[in-house]
Amino acid sequence: MTKWRTLLLATAGLNLSFLIWFSFAPFMGAISDDFGLSMGAVGILVSAAMWMAPAGRVVTGWLSDRWGATTVFGIVLVYVGIFSIASAFVSSYWLFFLLRLIVGTAGITFVVGIQHVAQWFDESQVGTAEGIYAGIGNAGAGVGALALPFLFGANWRAAFIWTGALSVVLGIVYYVVGEDAATQAAAEEAAEGATLRSLAHVGTRYGVVALSFAYFMSFGLVLAMNGWLPTYFDIGFDSSVALAGAFAAVFGITTGVLRPLGGYISDVLMRRERDILPVFRGRYREQWTFVCLCSVVVLLCVMTVAGQTGNVVLVVAVTALLGTACGWAGGAIFAQVPDMFPNRTGAAAGAVGGIGTVGGIGYPLVYSAMADVQTTYSGYTVDVHTGYVVVAATMLPIILANAWVFRPEIAARANVDGFSLFGTEEPVSAANPADD
Fold first, then answer.
1. pLDDT of residue 379
2. What is the pLDDT, as a whole number, of residue 436?
3. CA gap 276, 211 in Å, rounded
4. Domains along the sequence of the chain with CATH
5. 55-61-65-66 Cα dihedral, nearest 10 degrees
6. What interhelical angle do 358-373 and 345-356 show, nearest 10?
7. For residue 343, which of 191, 215, 232, 225 has the smallest C-alpha distance?
8. Is residue 118 predicted with pLDDT exceeding 50?
9. TM segments (predicted)?
10. Could you tell me if 78 and 26 are in contact, meaning their C-beta atoms sit under 8 angstroms apart?
11. Euclidean distance between CA atoms 278 and 287, whole angstroms
C-alpha cells in the first residue's frame, strides 16, 4: 500500500502547488486595478510566474535523487506557503512582484513528485502512475481558477493567505509521512549517482533534449494558457471575473484529468508492441508522443479560427480539446522519461520539466502582444485571438526535431548518445522491447 500512499501524497502536493502557482490568474483583474497595471504589465506578471521554474526544476530534480523526494517536496511547500501569505500583506507593486516570483517556484515540485513516484512503480505501470500524478496534480490550476473566485470573490489577499497556510501544513505532512523509495538500496543508488557530472551527462542526451523541447511546447503551453485564459475570456468576450475563470477552468481541468490517459496509452502500446504510425516503427512510446504533439499544433490553429467567430461556446469546446491534447502529450512524454532513465529519473525529469516551463514564459508575451495590436493587414485582423496561430508556427521546428530523434536508429540509443562534451560512458538503461 505504500506506493499508493506515495502516489496520493505526491498528487495532493502537486495539486496544491499548481493551485498556489496560478492563484493570481483568476484575480488578475482585481490585482491590475489595485496596482494600476497596463495590458503589457499583465503579460509580464503572467510570464514572471514561470521565470524561476526552469533552473529551479533542474536543480530540484537532481536534489530529489540526492536528498530524497520527501525532504525536497516538504521544504518547497513550506517556504512557498510562507511567501504566499507574505504577498497578501504588501502595498508596493514591486515588492508584490518579487514575492510572487518566489511563490512561482511552487512549480518546481512537479519534478520532485515525478522522481518520487518513479521510485515506487515498475516500468509496466510507471506511465499510468506518472499520468495520474501529473494529471490530477496539474488540474490544481483549473480548480483554482474555478474555486478561488467562488470562495473569495475578488479578495485575492484572503485567497493568498489561506492557500499559503494550507501549503505549510501539507509540507510538514509530506516530510513526516513520505518515504523516499521502495527500498533503501534504491534510494542509496539514486543518491550515489546524483553527481554534477551525471546531471550534465543526462541533460545532454538526445532523448532528454528532444523531450525537453516537446515539453516546452506542450506543458509550456499549459502554463501559458492557465495564466492567460482568464484574461482572454475577459477581454475577448467581455466576461465577468467568475465566468472568465469558469471558462478558463475547462482547459486546466481537461488537461489534468485526461493526462493519465496519455501515460496509460503509452504503457499499453509498449506492452502490446503496437505500431500506430507508418513511421518510427517499433518505437511505440515515441509514435504516441508524436501524434499528441501534432494534435496540439493543429488545435492551436483551430483556436484562432474559433475565437474570430465570436462564438464563446465554440471557443470553450475547442479549449477543452486543446487541453486534452496537451494533457495527453504531457502524459506521453513523462511515460518516456522514467522508462529512458530509470536510475536517473530525477535528473532527467528536472531537465525536461525545467526546459518545459520556458514555454510558459514566452507564450504569454506573444498572447499579450497580439492583444495589444488590434489592427488589420491585407484584410486579416490581428487581435487577441491571433496569438494562438503565431504560437503554433513557433512549434513546427520542435516537431521536426522530435521526428529526427524518434527515428528507430536514433531512439534506440537516445539515452546514451548526445552532445560529445560529456561523453557516452553511461550504459544503456532504457527499458523498451524495441531495443532488443
1. 56
2. 32
3. 19
4. 2-419 (1.20.1250.20)
5. 30
6. 10
7. 191
8. yes
9. 7-29, 35-55, 67-86, 92-112, 132-152, 158-177, 206-229, 241-266, 287-306, 312-335, 347-366, 386-406
10. no
11. 9
* Torsion angle, alpha carbons of 230, 235, 237, 243, to 10: 40
Q: How far apart are CA 170 and CA 355, in angstroms?
A: 27
Question: 43-52, 150-159, 276-285, 323-332: which has the minimum mean pLDDT?
Answer: 43-52
Mean pLDDT, residues 374-387 taken together? 70
Mean pLDDT in the chain? Answer: 86
Kindly state the cell numbers that stand for 158: 484572503
Distances in Å between the alpha carbon of 426 and those of 186, 206, 224, 432? 18, 14, 36, 17
Strands 380-382 and 375-377: antiparallel
Q: What is the pTM of this model?
A: 0.76
The residue with cell 484572503 is 158
pLDDT at 421 (0 to 100): 60
Instruction: In whole angstroms, give the CA distance from residue 110 to residue 337.
Output: 13
* Whole-number Cα distances in Å, 181 to 195, 237, 320: 19, 49, 36
Are the beta carbons of 413 and 428 closer than 8 angstroms? yes
Distance CA 136, CA 124 (A): 20
Select from 285, 259, 254, 288 the least CA-distant residue to 130.
Answer: 259
